[in-house]
Amino acid sequence: MNVFAAVFTFATLLLGSLYPGETITVKGSDTMVILAQRWAELYMSMHPDVTIQVTGGGSGTGISALINGTTDICNASRPMKQSEREKLKQRFNTLGVEIKSAKDGLALYVNESNPIQELTLDQIKAIYTSKITNWKEVGGPDSRIILYGRENNSGTYVYFKDNVLDGEDYAAAMQSMPGTAAVVNAVAKDKFGIGFGGAAYGKGIRFLKVKKDAKSPGYEPTEENVKSGQYPVSRFLYLYTRSRPTGALKQYIDWILSDEGQQIVSKVGYFPIR
Amino acid sequence: MRIALTLCSLLVAGSLFAQVKDSSQVELQEKTSELKGQVEGMNEMLLDMKSTVDALKKIKITGYIQSQYQTAESDGIGTFSGGSFPSSVHSRFLLRRGRVKVNYDNDLTQYVLQIDVTQNGVGIKDAYATIKEPWLKSFSLTGGIFDRPFGFEISYSSSSRESPERTRLFQTLFPGERELGAKIEITPPETSPLSFLNVRAGLLNGVLNTANENDNFKDLIGRVGVQVPLAEQGLAIDGGLSFYSGQARSNSRFVYKTNGPAKNFTVDSTAANVGSYHDRSYLGADVQLYYDLPGLGGLSLRGEFISGKQPGTATSGVFYNPGSTITPLYQRNFTGWYINYVQNIGLEHQLVVKYDELDPNTDVEGNDIGAPGKNLAVADVRYTTFGIGWIYHWDANVKFTFYYDIVANEKVNPATNLASLIPFKEDIKDNVFTVRMQYKF
After folding, report:
1. How far apart are the first and last CA of chain B?
2. Which of B191, B297, B396 sits opposite A70 (nearest CB)?
3. pLDDT at site B183
4. What is the mean pLDDT of residues A58-65?
5. What residues contact residue A266 under an 8 Å CB cut-off, 6+ apart?
6. Which of A15, A128, A158, B300 is the most exposed, having the fewest neighbouring CB atoms within 10 Å of its CB?
7. Mean pLDDT of A221-245
8. Chain A residues within 8 A of B229 when measuring between CB atoms
9. pTM for the predicted model, two decimal places
10. Local structure of B292: helix, strand or coil
């Protein structure tokens, strides 16, 4: 009888964990949180039997949750690092599955009153590494540049550091904000401020044109420029799962990649992958 | 008159209203100004706190506790499943690990201190500092006590490892896993075309963990590894080649070496042997394959093979470490290998199957051990271990392991009368069942 009870309990535990019901948890990038909420809202309205819980916290936080088994989908505005894949390998024996869900131009914001229209990648790097500290050094007013950026658990932070600063450290004076919306708000209120973030968060500020180098033309992070690759600071927005998705999870991801899901991408202000 | 009075009243009321309006505007401005001051003050406090938090973020404290119950097939067995059982005892509770690790990582420099607290006391496990060059960020130098840079199983933490213990092979060749010395590591950044490659090489005392050096030779250990991720196929293949080049100094004039054709040990007892050096050299290869099995979960298949020369003693295949004792040295050729299969089932379950073999003396057979005049002993007996287990991950911190080790020894010469070898005429009943609870943070 005891053996039977033990086997029954064990089987219940096993089956219960294998078929956890149709609740999908999504966690990660703050850049993607509005996009993920819109996807979830529309999908749940079409599939009332599916519950999708979306939270932000940053790409790093989402990837940690994926490794800890506390989220089904991780939203990330940067690719997963090798060290993070190693942790997934150790716990789940997988590398994780990377799904490109949208494209984003990483915009440089300045206050609407700022006369500067464009910067080169080198100038942006020099500004964010404290080599340029005054707007007059790039043709603007004689005033200190106030730097706004993201916290280090943010995929935007990592992407900007790796691709614009070439891995160099951010200036110590940079004020780290908890989300892209906070960066936008700060720059909108600070006429000598500069910030960076997703192009979808552009309200109340002005996008700078970005030039690959001094001789190149400057481009704004528009759909056309991002899709054509002319805008120099563009990136994919990713979904990560631990294993190859199946069941309700697969159906949801397939829908995100469908025309219907990609229309949401455009509506939120990012760019479809196709 | 009535009109004049009405006008006067309106003027007075208007004036009073204007005064009230002025005073409420002033009050509002004062409140706004006060709030602005408070917000600015909070902002300053936040910036101050942020610099403190940023500094604290560089410190990571991690740890784990492994508490376990074990039961063996018979009393007082010698085992590699958590150490030998006391005589007349075949079941026990153990605090196998009680680790706390402090890691301060300043991007280009790192400080690590790890201690282990168990029922046997407190011990130092890791204590090292690492510096990384700032230009390519690919080369680093480490000094202190750290894992020997050989193979795969050494550096695979027991908090992540699926089987309760490392194989008999690794426990024999690298007891305690760690060593005092210095090492360099080459790990090209992810953006480099060489990011699939990693190299580790170190000069170490070649003694044991925190023990003091006992000769002037340093042992050279290294591994060249590759990682081939095939993400599209849900597959990853990692692997490496390792080497160990060391020497052990004999404190005794008696040095035993195997005589291949005769399958026995012959002794060289010349006085010049005292202070002579003998090879401790290994070559190893390891492979790890990971595959994402749709609908079930990830699986891994890991294997490792090591062959080489090991200076030991008559009774132990563990490397010769004489200290102040005058113990005869036995030089053996050995091989060992293992294969380990892990299958994830859903989020919380893992099936584990592991098989390992250690032949500590490849020049002899079981029938030679115990035969007259061969000078062979317990340390020459070949072992295999088949382990099967189940892991249940309670949550992100806690896991339970249920694991059974089936240990088989080579049978020695049935005619032997040596007391130490008589039990080895048959397979010793030394299987072990382990139930472990681990908490990791």
Report:
1. 89
2. B396
3. 98
4. 95
5. A223, A272
6. A15
7. 91
8. 85, 95
9. 0.83
10. strand
Q: Is the pLDDT of residue A7 over 70?
A: no
A161 min Cα distance to partner chain B (Å): 13
* Facing B298 at nearest CB: one of A13, A68, A94: A94
Interface test with B, best of A82, A93, A170 (most B CBs within 10 A): A93
Q: Which residue has the tokens 């035969």?
A: B371
Number of C-alpha atoms within 13 angstroms, CB side, residue B51? 9
| Whole-number average pLDDT of chain A | 89
Q: Which residues contact B366 (CB under 8 A, 6 or more apart)?
A: B381, B382, B410, B411, B412, B413
- The structure tokens 């590398």 sit at A95
Asked if the Cβ–Cβ distance from B231 to A97 is below 8 Å, we say yes
Q: Taking residues B95-110, report their average pLDDT.
A: 95
Does residue B427 contact residue B410 with C-beta atoms inside 8 Å? no
For residues A199 and A180, give the distance between their C-alpha atoms in angstroms, rounded to a whole number: 10
B190–A81 C-beta distance less than 8 A: yes
Q: Which of B413, B407, B399, B408 is CA-nearest to residue B433?
A: B407
pLDDT higher than 70, residue B441? yes
Assess contact for B91 and B103: CB atoms under 8 A. Answer: no
Residue A62, both tokens = 């989402």
Residues of A in contact with B290 (CB under 8 A): 89, 93-95
Residues in B closer than 8 angstroms to A69, CB to CB, are 347-348, 393, 396
SS (H, E, C) B215-245: CCCCEEEEEEEEEEEEHHHCEEEEEEEEEEE
Is the minimum CB–CB distance between B158 and chain A shorter than 8 Å? no
pLDDT tier at B17 (50, 70, 90 boundaries)? low
Q: Are B380 and B256 in contact (CB under 8 A)?
A: no
pLDDT of residue B35: 87
Q: CB under 8 Å to A260, separation ≥6 — which residues?
A: A42
Question: If you search the block for the tokens 């204590």, which residue do you land on?
Answer: B127
Coil vs helix vs strand at A89: helix
State pLDDT tens for residues B345-379: 999 999 999 999 999 999 999 999 999 989 999 99
ipTM of model:
0.82
Q: Are B125 and B99 within 8 A, CB to CB?
A: yes
DSSP bridge partners of B124: B115
CB neighbours of residue B294 within 10 Å: 11
Task: Check if the beta carbon of residue A221 is closer than 8 Å to that of residue A106.
Answer: yes
Cβ–Cβ gap B229/A91 under 8 Å: no
Contact call for residues A157 and A165 (beta carbons, < 8 A): no
Mutate to test the interface with B, among A94, A129, A151 (most CBs of B within 10 A): A94
CA of A93, closest CA in chain B: separation in Å?
5
| Per-residue model confidence as pLDDT tens digits over B158-212 | 999 999 999 999 999 999 999 999 999 999 988 889 999 999 999 999 887 777 8
Q: Which residue has the tokens 């190299």?
A: B199
> Do residue A13 and residue B392 have CB atoms under 8 angstroms apart?
yes
